[in-house]
Amino acid sequence: MVLQFRHFFFHGIKEKKCYSLIIPPWRKYHSTTEEKSFHHGRTIFSTWWNEIYSMMEKSLLHGIMIFSTRLNDLIVAYKYTNRNEEKQENSHKKHIFTLEMKHIKNTHQTHFRVMKKIYPKKWLELHPYKQTNSVDQYYVGIANEIHKRLYSSTIADAFEEEENIRYTSLCLAAWFEDVISQTGIWQAFTAECRKRYGTYLPFYPIKGDYFPDEINLEDIRFLLWHHIQYLCRGISAINPENPGIEQTAQEIYGLLAEEYETAPENERMQEFLYHSAMGEEDFFRYREILDWFHYQCYFNIENVAQCRDEAERLLDDEKITPEMAETLIYATRTSLTFKGRRNLLSLTSPEWLALIGNAHPEHQLWGKVKVRENSCYLLEKEDDSYLYVKDLCSEDEGEFKITKKSLNLSAIRSREVGKSTLICELIYFGNAWWQCGMLLENKYNQKMAEYVDDLTKQKEKTNEKAAFHDFIKVSGGKSFVFCQSQEEISDFLLNKMDYNLKEGLDIPRINTENGAMLMVNPHTGLHIQFKLCECIKSPDNPNYNKEEAEKNAIMFIVNPDIIPYQLSCILQDEGMLPDAYLNSLQRKEYGQEFIRKNAHFLTDYFHYRCREKDFD
Fold first, then answer.
1. Three-state secondary-structure class, residue 133
2. pLDDT at residue 504 above 90?
């Protein structure tokens, strides 16, 4: 089936070709984790069925490590597999992956045929209006000047396609516009960075001459790294201190510094965001701003691709008809606008608008917006303006008042008070709840009761918490247990924890040379780590190998396919990854110190999570 986006789906947004990089099968490190989910009834279930409702929100990233070593070398590739069958599988791809360390030199023989000019039409794709004026023409000129410098830089080949250079140039020009126009998007980001990590930006030493309301060299270095890293997501981790990035940032900073005093403010962007107060009934205007911010703003470069990937997944599902797919795609797009975590610092777009609007008293409503995940509500009463419902998955939260202005009432015309349930997502704005996305109405019966019970357990992480308490009780309070064989794993799970293995599900055999580790957390439940256990330093781990840890421990931080976010945080907090380091032009100790200083940010960045929301 050919994927086609109707106008309602990416309204005002053009699909951007993100990258043309090849993702290797990476079999040796692809199946580094074997997860088992446990029902509180002490039966082990397959993870697939426990997570089927949240499949759309999962993104499994596969990668190899890529680091900078010198000015004219963009990357050093860390390559792993030496299996013959994988060489055959990769014979049509760009590289055959081996166990050796290999320098990939950048001689800057750029394969782009011609540098294309950036036209105003592309600039408008980052803005909420359809016609350019003289201010827009000015920033298009800035984008073209940035484009020239990026195109001729030593990092040009990292963008793979010339179109990616143009998009990065547009985003840097839009960042410059944001700073000049004082619309406060970037300033909200640096303020939140300082609050969370203790510095305006990660990676780079911030000196006394950093001014958060002006342009800074460090800002451009970070943005260039972010764009290149985005193109390499799932494939590689880029060293933020890459000399080529720094050199290119200096050239772009020199250009913008000359323009800083005379660059015009974009009053239309100021008007769009701030210049008229927002009342309690202006939810649809809020949604318009939120939609622009999430899918078009220079600040969020990963969201369109995420939405497109989810749409393709739906269209590839043979069980879903094209008509159903269109409805589900719209619902997915709307849901991601409010709940998507691909933004910087892994905050949602409503959370970012709340931070951005802090400096504007007329937008205090932005800070009061609440998003309720999909749930099942029982209709208790209604009047001319509202439906009054209670959440069957958390009945102690009281009554929710849904404004009829947000509902397609004809779609639920058969509703009955006391009998009908509504499955939907709700957004609190003003003084009421607004329904967004897909809405399903059903009569409450035994099947709905079972659905509510399953959804409640999923929301409250009942199974995960039960597994955590059972594990801690048996392990003597430890969150980690190291095993040397399949028999040891079976003994711990089936005998000591008294769990039952679901029929047809076997515990995989392990490499006795490196062992395995059983890990538990209330957020994730039980997790079995089969690979890279030799990188984990612990008195209880007989397989710890410092040499291997120096090579691969970094993967626990930057590769979310290796380990869940919460467990990576625990390993770091317990000091069990001391050997993780980033290859650097300087000594190994410098690379280890770099990771120690930036592990918090890097883990949040690569896992799309943050401790404030996902780990306590």
1. coil
2. no
